[in-house]
Amino acid sequence: MSCISCPISLYSPASVARNSAISSRSKSKPFAIRCAVGEYIEAPKVASVTEPLLLNAVRGEKVERPPVWLMRQAGRYMKSYQLLCEKYPSFRERSENVDLVVEISLQPWKVFRPDGVILFSDILTPLPGMNIPFDIVKGKGPVIYSPIRTADDVAQVREFVPEESVPYVGEALTILREEVKSDAAVLGFVGAPFTLASYVVEGGSSKHFTKIKRLAFSQPQVLHSLLQKFTNSMAEYIKYQADNGAQAVQIFDSWATELSPVDFEEFSLPYLKQIVDSVKKTHPDLPLILYASGSGGLLERLPSTGVDVVSLDWTVDMAEGRRRLGSDIAVQGNVDPGVLFGSTEFITERINDTVRKAGSSKHILNLGHGIVVGTPEENVAHFFEVAKGIRY
Ligand code: CP3
Fold first, then answer.
1. Atom of ligand 1 nearest to the CA of 141
2. Are strands 32-34 and 40-42 parallel, antiparallel or unpaired?
């Protein structure tokens, strides 16, 4: 056990005995234990054995090690995925056919046994159901055929009804739950409104985000009405995923950090908060994870969204990130995906460093962004092996 201000493991038998003695003596804080720098922190609750480790960790229950999963843990770095791509060259087909979605989602599960199994899909998958056709073109990435840039374009955008447009997502999540049982948590995900808007306004991936910024800074009301449609739609999509088997849902706001803080407060934060508020009303126990790459300048603002977990990229030191986020929220991340190109000793060192800095409560071990194409599969195997051998 450790606290945010002293990321030192206290789970030696002696320290547990010492801490129980402290806690029984502490009259004013009966359920508190004292950490190495003398601050009192809440003692962890006892974990449920029938729930996946990841859920217990997010809830701040006492766990023996941090749960581990990796963003983009299914995909092109895996030989089995590459072989499947030869047979099914269309990304849309791979991500919209129930059998393929289940098979791909389970590829890393079968080899590495992560503590989280993320649905194989894309943040853009809901777009056709909102009347926005797209494709993912090899070598180019996402392509939106008719970008949305005017009030008339926004008026054509339909709100999303997941059970009508993406029934395969619900079916796949249900099957995944049956497959992994409580040995891992099944994870769903959605794109955040600003990040989705950036794709549909820019027409695909972008370097300088000039088109969405032109819209934001010259006709903000048009962008706001688009963001509101994505907000309502993604709140419904999260609920749909939870109702069909997702046990935690990650919200990807990958491009929000292209905004300066004052613009983030106008074009991203209120919509994230609306999504969280709406989901918490009907699904109060569903953990929500927020990932925004490059969020170092925005960290203090992120807990106000109401999410349960913030996923850190690698530009923030884990100990500093913890301090800046406050002690209520769980953290995920933040190992540089480039570390997986290093030696096995280096990978081990970085895992231990991150885990030590995160402390022994409310941490999900992960990378600071997705696994990069070309990452040696054996290094990913090493990452999971080391991670699963950790004991607080
Ligand atoms: O993490 C997982 O294993 C789940 C699968 C997943 C994919 N996309 C599959 C995918 C997840 C969680 C995503 C999210 C996603 N998609 C994000 C947010 C995360 C991030 O990277 O910041 C974004 C921005 C997208 C949009 C997107 N989809 C891009 C930019 C690309 C091209 C990327 C590239 O490297 O070519 C995609 C395509 C895509 N989605 C791939 C995968 C595995 C690669 C293409 C392929 O496999 O054929």
1. 32
2. antiparallel
Q: What is the pTM of this model?
A: 0.90
> Is any atom of ligand 1 closer than 6 Å to the C-beta of 253?
no
Which residue's CA lies nearest to atom 23 of ligand 1? 123
Q: How does pLDDT run across 6-31, given as a tens digit for each residue?
A: 333 333 323 333 233 223 323 233 33
Angle at 364 between CA 363 and CA 370, to 5 degrees: 140
pLDDT (tens digit, 9 = 90+) per residue, 49-92? 789 999 999 999 999 999 999 999 999 999 999 999 999 999 99
Q: Is the CB of 126 under 6 A from ligand 1?
A: no
